[in-house]
Design a protein that fits this description.
single chain; about 260 residues; mainly beta; Porin; 14-stranded antiparallel sheet; 14 strands; globular
């Protein structure tokens, strides 16, 4: 029972880490422009159909993201909500703040918080994530027209104690790379992130996660200028991350979604 609950927690966390870091790079671009960005996403997750041992994985996730730059840097946050057949199964959020430390705004100090909870589909038991705080440095780059973006972050990561499953506090690190590429006259966007972080409780003490996304931006089509809808997919690729119904988190998974996004 414990492992099934933990599985859902980690599954959700994968998605959130993906969205957070993906937007860090894309929104660093908006920070230079002084813009404001927010969107709502709907994902249908195919993990429960592709892997028997992920049969309890939530099939629907909604995401709300916001990015706001200012004279000192930028603030980014998102909230993920997972759904089962009878309603909300869990929620997770992250908030990050960057402070520019160079005149060209490429170098920044980064601090963020991660936390949330999840529930078990069979028992209705709920458990909180082992929440964490991260801080370190970031380097952001973009092309002249912002069609290409790249960001890299090197951070210290501290996990707080969690009494639900007696998780002890520990210190670690996280390395994140984020990219964004818009092409075909704005019709297509390929973006994503790659995370590697330390966890003493997994085989090899490292967790790997990457989540590339591909979007077709409908507002670039004739007659659809104000339709800010994007259709596409993301693929959640991980190792030592997802807990399955066997109580294991030592496997490799590649889990796609069918997705829609509305940008405000």
């Amino acid at each position: 029972m414990f492992y099934i609950i933990l599985q859902k927690i980690v599954i959700k966390r994968i998605k959130q880490l993906m969205k957070k870091h993906l937007l860090v790079a894309i929104f660093s671009m908006a920070g230079v422009l002084g813009g404001f960005a927010q969107n709502v996403q709907l994902h249908y997750d195919l993990g429960h159909s592709l892997y028997k041992e992920l049969s309890n994985r939530p099939s629907v996730t909604t995401t709300v993201e916001m990015f706001k730059p200012d004279r000192w840097g930028s603030t980014f946050l998102f909230t993920d909500i997972d759904y089962q057949r009878d309603g909300v199964a869990g929620a997770y959020w992250e908030i990050a703040r960057e402070f520019n430390v160079s005149k060209n705004k490429q170098w920044a100090a980064h601090i963020e918080y991660n936390g949330g909870l999840s529930s078990n589909e069979d028992t209705w038991n709920a458990v909180r994530f082992q929440h964490a705080v991260l801080f370190g440095g970031a380097w952001n780059w973009h092309s002249a027209d912002f069609s290409k973006t790249f960001s890299i972050q090197a951070m210290y990561k501290y996990y707080f104690k969690n009494r639900h499953f007696n998780a002890r506090p520990f210190s670690g690190f996280q390395l994140t790379e984020v990219w964004g590429l818009t092409f075909a006259q704005g019709l297509c966007t390929f973006s994503g992130f790659c995370d590697v972080w330390y966890d003493p409780n997994v085989k090899g003490k490292l967790i790997f996660l990457t989540e590339p996304q591909f979007w077709f931006n409908l507002n670039t089509l004739k007659g659809m200028k104000d339709v800010n809808l994007s259709l596409g997919s993301e693929v959640e690729v991980s190792n030592n991350f997802v807990w399955n119904t066997k109580g294991q988190n030592n496997k490799f998974y590649a889990i796609p979604t069918i997705a829609a996004k509305w940008t405000f």
